[in-house]
Amino acid sequence: MVSNIKKFKDEDEKRRFVAECEARFEAQLDAATEKIAANSDVRIITLSGPTCSGKTTTANKLTRVFTEYGKIVHIISIDDFYLNRDVLNNRSMAEGGKIDYDSVHTIDLVTLEACVEDIFEGGWVKLPRYDFVSGTRSGYEEIEISDRDLFIFEGIQAVYPEITDLFNLHPFISIYISVAEDLYLDGDCFSRFDIRFFRRLVRDYNFRNARPEFTFKIWESVRSNEDVSIIPYENVSDIILNSLLPYELGVIKPYLIEILGLIDKDSEYYERAQAIVRRFDDIEEISRDYIPEYSVYREFLG
To answer: How far is it, in rounded angstroms, from Cα 118 to Cα 113?
Structure first.
């Protein structure tokens, strides 16, 4: 699927276009929640997708909707099931490589399976919490199971076969979210991968204190893992959401250009950064003020 980047005659037209794009995404969410609500046996939702697809905001939107339905919603990050860093370090040293945090082998599958079983058996479930500073499991959150509980397991790993196998023994619904369209301007294609890279450059700088050089450096390995572990399974989920907002390049333009301008001329990424900047020359800026407070795009800009 492809979309063309619009030209605008005035600010009112920009506002309307943002509203139209947001309405399209909200319609997808409405259809998803209706499908989930129609199945009363579902106690678990998995939410997966590649980096910078909008998983976190979508999980929060689902929480608000199902809370209105009378559910008690628990968002569980699969990252909380990481094995302790010393275990991963020792394993990677023995194998002669580095820790690949996107690998399923970094996940404590035994504990994850036990949590899934406890959710359906009733009683209590102990959900681990992971401290990313120390790289250790910092403790557990204990939840007494009731008929009103709904658990959203969120993370890129939720689509991995080794993890979906743990859920397949029980009724659950899987959601996959990603940028599913390319954008075109006068023949120039901004691919769905480009769009997620732009999102990540801005998000990591704004919220993870990561300079653009770091995001450039890791992007190749991120994409390699997606091609092997995520993209092949994108069409097997029960619900597929497209998080592209066709207005977004106009909104992200000033932030992206500012961040890319931080890359020194002697950097190996300087020319690539400048090439991106030039591609935005003819894209009209759109004010972030036009974006609703709870838009999925706020995940990247704030």
So the answer is: 9
What is the residue-averaged pLDDT of the chain?
Answer: 92
Residue 47: strand pairing partners: 154, 175
pLDDT at 1 over 70: no
Residue with tokens 């008690």: 72
- Residue 228: phi, psi to the nearest 5? -90, -45
The residue length of the chain stands at: 302
Give residue-wise pLDDT tens across range 196-253. Answer: 999 999 999 999 888 999 999 999 889 998 998 899 998 899 999 999 999 999 999 9
Task: List, for residues 49-75, the tens digit of each pLDDT value.
Answer: 999 999 988 999 999 999 999 999 999
> What gap in Å lies between CA 150 and CA 300, rounded to an integer?
26
The pTM (predicted TM-score) of the whole model is: 0.90
Report the distance separating Cα 30 and Cα 8, nearest Å: 29
- At 110, which amino acid appears? V
User: Who contacts 296 (Cβ-Cβ below 8 Å, separation ≥6)?
Assistant: 25, 54, 57, 58, 61, 243, 245
- Domain extent listing, the chain: 2-301
* pLDDT confidence bin for 41, thresholds 50/70/90: confident
What is the second-level CATH architecture of the domain 2-301? 3-Layer(aba) Sandwich (3.40)
Place of tokens 């309307």: 16
